[in-house]
Fold this sequence. Notes:
Order of helices and strands of chain B: EEEHHEEHHHHHEHEEHHEEHHHHHE
Oligomer: heterodimer
CATH class of the largest domain in chain A: Alpha Beta
Radius of gyration of chain B: 23 Å
Order of helices and strands of chain A: EEEHHEEHHHHHEHEEHHEEHHHHHHE
Largest sheet of chain B: 6 strands, mixed
CATH architecture of the largest domain in chain A: 2-Layer Sandwich
Number of helices of chain A: 16
Strand content of chain B: 15-25%
Structural class of chain A: alpha+beta
Shape of chain A: globular
Largest interface: A-B, 92 and 76 residues
CATH architecture of the largest domain in chain B: 2-Layer Sandwich
Number of strands of chain B: 11
CATH class of the largest domain in chain B: Alpha Beta
Strand order of the largest sheet of chain A: 1-2-6-3-5-4
Number of domains of chain A: 2
Number of strands of chain A: 11
Distance between the termini of chain A: 57 Å
Largest sheet of chain A: 6 strands, mixed
Helix content of chain A: 40-55%
Strand order of the largest sheet of chain B: 1-2-6-3-5-4
Distance between the termini of chain B: 53 Å
CATH topology of the largest domain in chain B: Cytochrome Bc1 Complex, Chain A, domain 1
Strand content of chain A: 15-25%
Radius of gyration of chain A: 22 Å
Amino acid sequence: xxxxxxxxxxxxxxxxxxxxxxxxxxxxxxxxxxxxxxxxxxxxxxxxxxxxxxxxxxxxxxxxxxxxxxxxxxxxxxxxxxxxxxxxxxxxxxxxxxxxxxxxxxxxxxxxxxxxxxxxxxxxxxxxxxxxxxxxxxxxxxxxxxxxxxxxxxxxxxxxxxxxxxxxxxxxxxxxxxxxxxxxxxxxxxxxxxxxxxxxxxxxxxxxxxxxxxxxxxxxxxxxxxxxxxxxxxxxxxxxxxxxxxxxxxxxxxxxxxxxxxxxxxxxxxxxxxxxxxxxxxxxxxxxxxxxxxxxxxxxxxxxxxxxxxxxxxxxxxxxxxxxxxxxxxxxxxxxxxxxxxxxxxxxxxxxxxxxxxxxxxxxxxxxxxxxxxxxxxxxxxxxxxxxxxxxxxxxxxxxxxxxxxxxxxxxxxxxxxxxxxxxxxx
Amino acid sequence: xxxxxxxxxxxxxxxxxxxxxxxxxxxxxxxxxxxxxxxxxxxxxxxxxxxxxxxxxxxxxxxxxxxxxxxxxxxxxxxxxxxxxxxxxxxxxxxxxxxxxxxxxxxxxxxxxxxxxxxxxxxxxxxxxxxxxxxxxxxxxxxxxxxxxxxxxxxxxxxxxxxxxxxxxxxxxxxxxxxxxxxxxxxxxxxxxxxxxxxxxxxxxxxxxxxxxxxxxxxxxxxxxxxxxxxxxxxxxxxxxxxxxxxxxxxxxxxxxxxxxxxxxxxxxxxxxxxxxxxxxxxxxxxxxxxxxxxxxxxxxxxxxxxxxxxxxxxxxxxxxxxxxxxxxxxxxxxxxxxxxxxxxxxxxxxxxxxxxxxxxxxxxxxxxxxxxxxxxxxxxxxxxxxxxxxxxxxxxxxxxxxxxxxxxxxxxxxxxxxxxxxxxxxx
Lengths: 427, 428
C-alpha cells in the first residue's frame, strides 16, 4: 500500500520528497526550514519561534484569520513547530483538498506581511507562552541546565527565547529573519498520502518553482569547547517536589555512536519515542525504573536525547521521592551507570530494545501525518536513509558497542547536574 | 495531485457490515474491525466501575484501584507483568472515570494473546501486594503535590467543585492528600470485589487481525470471568442549579501565569441537542485559531497563548467551559472579554457561514480521526458507550449537515446563561 520515497530538487533549490500511501483518503504536507534557535544571536533569542507565529498572520492572498479558517473549513489539521535546528509547518487534509495547503505554503514561503500591529499583539502572546512555561519547575530547571551546557554554542538558550529579547525584538528584526531563512534553497517539502506522485510533483512545481532562490543562509559557527569537569547548579522555586536533571554530552544524530547510545537509552530509561504522532511505551522494566523508582529513590525516571545537527545533551529527568535527598537519588543513578560501564549488557537485552523500536515504528506507521513528518525531519539532521536504516542499525549493535559508549559518554566530567529545590507552597 | 477520485476511495467508515459485535453470556461485549495496513493492533474498552462508588472519605479509591491492577496479580508480579509487555514493545494501561474504569493498549498483532491474557488477569485477579500499594501511594501523593502547584489543574478542580456542588462530578478523581492517606489495602480489595466484573464491560480490538479471530482470543481470555459480587452503580443524584454567578480564586504563590476556567453545565452525550451544541462550541472556541474566543482573547488582545472553549459530554450532565492562561494582572480583562463573547453568542447565535464552516470541518476531519487503529478502537467503544448505533459514522455526515442555525442558538441558550457563570481562577 505504500511506495518508495521520490526525492528531487527543484530549480530554485527546494528539495521535494513524495511518498504515495493509499490506506486512507488523506494527504499530509510538511514544509521544513533549516532555521531554529541555533541560528539566533544574543539579543535576538526566540526570533525563529516568533517568526513561526508571524507566519500565521497572513499574506496578501491569504490574509490573517482567513487562512486558518480556510484550512479548518476543509477538515484539515495544521500546526507548526520550532526547534533547535529547524522550523516546520504541516497540514493534513482530505486528499482532494491538499491543493489549498500547497498554495498556502508556497505563498507564505515568500509573501508574508508581518504588520507592526500583528507584531505588537503577538509579542504579548509569546510572552504569555513563556510565562506559561515558567510556571513549570521542569522548564525552569531545563533552561538552566541547557544554558550551563552551552557557553559558546547557540544551543545555549531555549527555543522560546529570553524575556529580555521578547521585549525588544522589532518587526524589522523578524522580517529580516524571515527573508534570510525562508527561501526555497533552505527548505524541504515532504508530502505523503493518497496521491499519484507524478501529478503531485507537477502541481508542486507549478506553485513552488517560481519562488526565487535566496542567498545561502548564514550560520553561526561557534563550537562548544570540551567540558572539563562536572558542573552543578540548582534552581529554587515553589512546591513540595524536588527534581534532578542530569545531562550528558551527546553526539549528533549522524555520529555512528548514536545507535549504540539509542540501545543504551532503551535499556536504561525505556525506549525513546521519536515519532511526533503515535505514542511510545512504558518503561517500568527499564534498569532505572527498577533501581530508582522501584527502590523509591525517585517517583518517576525518564531519559532521552534530542536528535540534533550538532552535539547536544542526553538528559535523565528524575522526580525525587519525598523521603530522599537529591544526592541519594543521584548516587543511585550513578550506581546504575557504573553497571553498564563495567559489565557488558546481554544480547537478549539488545534484541529486546530492537523489538521495542520495531513496535514503536509500527505504531507510527498507522498514521500518514507521522510518515510525512519522518521524511522531512530526518532530512533536517541527516538524510531519509537515517530513518529507513534505523532498525537495521540497531540490530547490528553488540554488547561491546554499548559498553564502549556507556564509558565514553556517561562520564561525570562531561555532565551537568541540575537540581530543582522546592521551597514549599509559599515559594 | 490527488485524482478526482482518490485512490484510497472513500473507504467506507466503520459500519454494520464490517464491525464485528458479540455479547458473551457473562455480560461482556466485544467489538472488532480489521485493518491490515499496519502490523499492529489497538485495544480499547471499559469495565463498569468508577468513582461513583466512592465515599467522600475515600476519594481517589477507584483511581487507586485502577492504578493497582497491573501492580501484581495472583500469578504474576508487577515486574513480571511489565516485563512481558515491554519486552514485545506493547503498552497497556488503566484509568478510572466517574462511571467506568477505562483501559487501552497496543501491540504488534502477533502479541494480541499475550495482551489479552494480561488484561484478563489484571482485571480479575489483582493481588494488591502491600509493598506495591505503599509505593503507589507515595507516587499518588507526589502527584497531588504537583497538582497543587499546577494553575490549570487547580482552576479546573475548583471549577468542577462549584459547577457540580455535592455531586459525584464535583469531586476530583485523584482525591485529596488526606483521602489517599486514608485508603487501606482492604479498601482496595473490597472495592475490587464489589465493583469489578464482566457485566457491562466492553472491549474493542482493531488492527491486523480477522475480527472472528480477535473474538476467539477475547473469549479464551475473558469468557470464563464471573464476578458474583458485582454491584449495580447507583443513579446520579440530581444536579443543583446554579442560581447566580459564582467566582472563586485559588492562590498559588510564585507563578508567572494564572489559569481561568469559565463555564456552565453542558448537555449529556445522548441529549438531542448535543451535536448542535458541539458545532456551536467549535464556532465559539475552536475553529481556526480557537474560534471567537481565541480571536478576541489571543489574536486581537494578545492576552493569552491559549484561550479556547470545550464541551465535555458523557453519561451525565456535561460541562461547557472556556479555558485561558494569562498574566496574573490580565485575569479580569480576559474574564470580561470571555463573558462578552458568551453574551454575544447567546444573543445572536452563529452566522450561516460560521455554521457551514464548522459542519465542513466536522465532516472533513472524520477520516483523520478514524485513520489509526487507536482512533477506530475508541470510536467503536463510544458507539457502545453512548448507544450511537453501528452505522453512526456512516450517518455522521448527514447528521452534522442537518443541524440548523436555530438549533445551535437554542442549544446555546439552553445551557449558557451569562449571568450565572461559574468562574474559577488559580494563580498568584
